[in-house]
Amino acid sequence: MEFDFTWVLLGFPLAFTLGWLASRLDLRQLRIENRQAPKAYFKGLNFLLNEQQDQAIDAFIEAVQNDPDTSELHFALGNLFRRRGEYERAVRVHEHLMSRGDLTQHERERAQHALALDFLKAGLLDRAEAALRKLEDTPFEEEARLALLSIYERSRDWANATEIAARLDSSSHGSFSTRQAHYLCEQAIASVATGDTEKALDTLAQAVAMAPASARPLIDLAKLQNQLGQSHEALQTLLKLTAAASQALPLAAGLLANIAQSSGEQQATLALLKASYAQTPSIDLIEAIVKLEKEPETARQWYVRHLEREVSLVAASKWIAGEKLEDEHHHALVQRAMDQATKPLMRYRCAACGFEATQHFWHCPGCQAWDSYPMRRIEEL
């Protein structure tokens, strides 16, 4: 039986025509999809620039549906969810990215970092810590360590905070020695609370060695030495403070006056306080000077000297307390009213966030900044 080539000759044009039509249909569909994805993407960007986040999210969701393999769209969508506080949706987007097998190493690390930020913003500190720990030896390592440091500070995990700060200290983010000294001071406070004063003294000595120019380790060490009856050692510690961080003397002025009285060093300490006041006037220094002056009238005159330099209702109230009034039997009532009025005037204010308090904080309870409070009380009328 002979093969009929007629059918072959007829079939070639038919096959070519069908193939051509199929390719045209595929190209048309591809063009439609390619037009839809960029259009939705740019529409989302336009909404984002106009601060219309709801519409931007809708546009990015449409773009992701049209082009589910584009990782950049997922990152944009996840970040938008996080900014809006929709952390659960942000986590789902970034976890979906992490589950994909076609991501490059850099994209996978980027998704891991984004996921850690989702957990951190949501307040899921345990999950954030675990996610951040996985970023060691990646381009996001330094950012992850800073975030971990924030977590450990918030949870008062000073041991882990010390470990992370030591790693950051050797990086390009500057010195963390003062921060590490604060962590040691916090650990010393915990040791004192459990009655282990020897460990606390050793820890504070480490803090002083870690940051010799820092005020807190010296002040905390002097306080503990004074509590243990080591007046001479406490005085020597505060003398180091005047040399290393003289601006912090107002903060320790009351403690210094008490130690001077118990150690018999009133005159030398009084001279030191007067010299410090001449350089930096402060009501804290005035009160310490008044405590050490032997003559009551001489002591009262320091309030007048302060009033000559600064308008101070507190100083005026303190001076009036020792003055004889024409109606002396009303003096107690007047004095009580003035003390009540001046009490809220003396406060410390965080330079970072403006949080005000009647006591000094090394670690601001408002913004978590360290060393953001002035070393002297401010008085605002």
Automatic annotation (TrEMBL):
The entry's keywords: Cell inner membrane, Cell membrane, Iron, Membrane, Metal-binding, Repeat, TPR repeat, Transmembrane, Transmembrane helix
Gene Ontology molecular function, alphabetical: iron ion binding
Cytoplasmic domain ranges by topology: 24-381
Keyword match Iron: yes
Domain of life: Bacteria
Topological type in the membrane: Single-pass membrane protein
GO annotations of cellular component type: cytoplasmic side of plasma membrane
Domain LapB rubredoxin metal binding residues, every copy: 348-372
Binding site for Fe cation: C350, C353, C364, C367
Keyword Metal-binding appears in the UniProt entry: yes
InterPro entries, per database record: CellSynth/LPSAsmb/PSIAsmb, LapB, Rubredoxin_2, TPR-like_helical_dom_sf, TPR_rpt
Subcellular location: Cell inner membrane
Chief place of localization: membrane
Annotated Pfam families: TPR_16, TPR_19, Zn_ribbon_LapB
Alphabetical GO biological process terms: lipopolysaccharide metabolic process; regulation of lipid biosynthetic process
Family: Belongs to the LapB family.
NCBIfam families: PRK11788.1-3
Chain's role: Modulates cellular lipopolysaccharide (LPS) levels by regulating LpxC, which is involved in lipid A biosynthesis. May act by modulating the proteolytic activity of FtsH towards LpxC. May also coordinate assembly of proteins involved in LPS synthesis at the plasma membrane.
Name this polypeptide is given: Lipopolysaccharide assembly protein B
Organism (species): Polaromonas hydrogenivorans
Gene: lapB
